[in-house]
Specification:
It is a single chain. This protein has about 130 residues and is an alpha+beta fold. It has a single domain, classed as Hotdog Thioesterase (Thiol Ester Dehydrase, Chain A, Roll), CATH 3.10.129.10. It is built from one helix and five strands, in the order E-H-E-E-E-E. The chain has a five-stranded antiparallel beta sheet with strand order 1-3-4-5-2. The protein is elongated.
Length: about 130
């Protein structure tokens, strides 16, 4: 992720869109980074569940950073794309873009890779696409 070469448009499919609310702020009135991370995980899971055709679990999250603070009321949009998949696991890239009344246009906030594994109802690893 580089703040110097910020793309003009999101990469991936829109997986989640939500409004940042006052209950999700820190002492300075900005949205918690952990709240943003949880939204990213949910967005990645939307795509992972569809690819796996069933239940998935988050295994890990790659390095991420924030390019700007998120104000209350901002529209937070998460875009997900499949980077690679194996027999039971997949890596999904999630980009976050925000829009707010104080911004002229949407801006990229963050990006990270999330690893998910397909699991059975009993929590055992299973091949992607099989129940």
């Amino acid at each position: 992720m580089s703040s110097i070469n910020t793309p003009a448009a999101p990469h991936g499919e829109l997986a989640l869109r939500v409004i940042a609310m006052p209950k999700d702020t820190n002492a300075h009135g900005d949205i918690y980074g952990g709240w943003v991370l949880s939204q990213m995980d949910l967005a990645g899971m939307v795509l992972a569940k569809r690819i796996a055709r069933g239940r998935v679990a988050t295994v890990s999250v790659g390095r991420m950073g924030f390019m700007r603070p998120v104000p209350i009321g901002a529209i937070v949009s998460c875009y997900a794309s499949l980077v690679e998949s194996g027999r039971t696991s997949m890596r999904i890239n999630v980009e976050v873009w925000i829009e707010s009344e104080t911004m002229d246009e949407p801006a990229k906030l963050s990006e990270a890779d999330f690893w998910y594994v397909a699991i059975t109802e009993n929590g055992k690893t299973r091949p992607i696409g099989q129940s």
